[in-house]
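Protocol check, entry for the methods section draft. Step 1: assemble the input record (protein sequence plus ligand SMILES). Step 2: submit for complex structure prediction. Step 3: store the structure tokens unaltered in the notebook. Ligand used here: pyridoxal-5'-phosphate. Step 1 record:
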Amino acid sequence: MNYKKPLNTSKRVLMGPGPSEVHPRVLKAMATPLIGHLDPEFVETMDDIKYMVQQTLQTENYLTFVVSAPGSAGMETCLVNLLEPGDEAVICIHGVFGGRMADIAERCGAKVTKVEAPWGEAIDPQQVKAALEKVDNPKMVAIVHAETSTGVLQPLEQISKMTHDAGALFVVDAVTSYCGTDLRVDDWGIDAIYSGTQKCLSAPPGLSPVSFSAAAIEALENRKTKVQSWFLDLSLVKNYWAGAKRAYHHTAPVSAMFALREAYQLVLEEGLENRFVRHRKNHELLKTELEALGFEFLVKEGFRLPMLNAVKVPEGMDEAVVRSQLLKEYNIEVGGGLGKFAGKLWRIGLMGESSSANHVNMLVSALRGIL
Ligand SMILES: *Cc1c(COP(=O)(O)O)cnc(C)c1O
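Step 3, stored output:
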């Protein structure tokens, strides 16, 4: 340890499961001199951000804002506000993050029914239907849109319809899918959604955009018990995002918000549809190159994430050694497998600023050098 030496981290090429790289404009915005979080100019900044969250989530939900903590806190916000002890929740699990949702729901005192799919596959809507038939009075169905641990893109519309037919709220984890692939909160009937900033949005980590439908707000207003978390209680924090009337709740991370505002501008300048096309194209390019090198995709075609490529490493290759060589010799970060895929899988991110032909070419030529 030498804590007195200047901070001098390497300049990495970020191609893991997040954080992704950020545009220089975002870095510059983060260095903006601080202002007070109750300053009228900061109120305006928060209003701008809220508007851009609505645009990018394709929603008109009034209760749309950014939790001052990472994606996992967005997950916890959705669950602790909508679940009371004794409520019944159907939680879909097809990877690490669905499992985390079930854990939080259980900590809320909910009776959890798990719907599981093998890792690398999507949840079949018929499984959800069967689960809903067994549960007396389901309060919610929760599911991950882009499972970052397995590389699966989960179709949502059919499950959303079944959820509403059963009188339940539809809750979606969009941490990795947000701003990288199509996601329509209003059209798809999503009642509560959370995301993160460090994946396809390409802002620094530590914030979580969220949004709640009228039905979710009604469920919140009809609670019989207090929300177990003070910090994440929507009935309190919503007043902090209420424009000019806003009341002190906590101190927003001002610099991170400046960066986020800039990142949103970049997304809207590019256009959502163009951004989705870019993510898809670079995924196709990487796919062709990696398959030529002997990597195989875990997920079957049609369910693959464009921003997170889960690939089985070629027979006989020591993945940990190659991954560490990529980092140390080429400054390239890729992700290893999680849970049961540790040592077997790579997770290669092409998210936001890290989704470019240059990134693909850098990784592929480094791999050719090593192998
Ligand atoms: C990254 C991620 C999270 C957690 O976000 P953090 O910002 O790391 O807390 C949750 N869900 C999914 C699908 C993710 O990819």
